[in-house]
Amino acid sequence: MPIRKKLFLQALSPAPPPRLGPAGRPPIRMVANENPLGPSPRAVAAVQAALAELHRYPDAGGVALKHALAARVQLAPESVMLGNGSDELIMLICHAMLREGDEAVLAHGSFISYVRRIQAQGAIARQIPLRDMTHDLPAMAAAITPNTRLVFVCNPNNPTGTTVGEAELRTFLDQVPDEVLVVVDEAYIEFVTRPDFPDLPPLIRAGRDNLLLLRTFAKIHGLAGLRLGYAFVPELIAYLERARPVFNVNSLAQIAGLAALDDAEHLARSLAHAAHSRTVLSEGLRAVGLTVIPGETNFVAVAVADDQGLAAALA
Hints:
There is one protein chain. By secondary structure, the chain is of the alpha/beta class. It contains 12 helices and 9 strands. Helix 3 (63-73) runs parallel beside helix 10 (251-261). The longest helix has 24 residues, at 264-287.
């Protein structure tokens, strides 16, 4: 008799097999949106200084890093949850909040991890088409049913780079029932210059219990290889922590993250490089007749007639 498997998990497409590029090197992943300037020099130095302590287990609570992150948004350290990348936090949130048959609402044309993590729980992903390449929040609010347990909003959106403003997002949040958790993924928040971009920590401080903010060290700080993400979630954190592996964030990631937070020079250089590169690339793409989607991230998205054909040609 074969080993029994979960049918909804078996139905997911498997991860692509690993492959090497020219000269045996890993291929350049254009979808990864990594920092071309590399990691924070302060983070590198801190990691190098800690290598002799690798025989020690990491701080399971990530206390020092949680204090530093909380202070920046005027929340209590107990409001911060750390993850092995924000992708692990997405997985843990779905694991903790979704049962088989439950529903989650999200945009169709947003971060692919949401759909996979939802479906891995046997839940239903209600995907709402983008409007003008960004979230159609009124349509997402209308898609919420009594079976909805989660809503994902990626702001700025990956992969289009577009954003929604403060007034629009607050109106949406007011339309979401209190028992539905809204996860706002702000992985690219440091690149945003839009003056009315939502400032959400004050809503959490004011007691909005069904709001969770996701952020990461992978983009602006250049620590993608160490896998370090975090969430601000005061009300549900004690519950969500029950699903978290004890030593999910390694010691080097914690040390690097703490050092990167104080590296203002690296942050400024990364922002300037991203803004300049986005302008140069956008101008070049428009010059050859392509439509550039206005965005505020460290990548540029363009509209193409045959996206699958282009992806195959670049593979």
